[in-house]
Amino acid sequence: MATREREKAAKRAEARDNRPHASVNNIRIPAQKVRIVIDLIRGKDVNEAIAILANTPKSASPIVLKLLKSAIANAEHNLSMATDNLYVQEIWANDGFIMKRFMPRAKGSAAGIQKRTSHITVVLNERK
Q1: Is residue 5 part of a domain?
Q2: What average pLDDT does range 115-123 have in this prediction?
């Protein structure tokens, strides 16, 4: 049995994605608002993406900027990559859980409120 476990571990190591990435879960901004910001930096060099995010007046910009810097740090520290060659290969935002709340309305009734969250992931790669 031990040999089979070693084979499986070797296959997992082969299939592992060696691109630097970072992700954040359950951010209290709807994914629809985050997608507006991440569409601006998809495919750009990391230095250009940082400049774009620093000058974008959207509420999701600081969060995406922090996530991008985290992915750059992962590339430098874990994979020994040079930051000059990095670019944003993939970035996406998915819907997270929805907090459901109620707001009092007229005549003793109530209306539902949905407080949406999102999961954001960024994957970098080196230019050849």
Answers
A1: no
A2: 96
* Cα separation, 21 vs 75, whole angstroms: 8
Helix axes 31-41, 61-79, angle to 10 degrees: 60
Closest residue by Cα to residue 113 from 126, 92, 99, 127: 99
Range of the domain at 73: 22-126
Amino acid present at 80: S
Give the pairing type, strands 110-126 and 21-27: antiparallel
Residue 42 burial (CB < 10 Å; 0-12/13-18/19+)? Answer: middle
Residue 98 tokens, joined: 């929805």
What is the pTM assigned to this prediction? 0.85
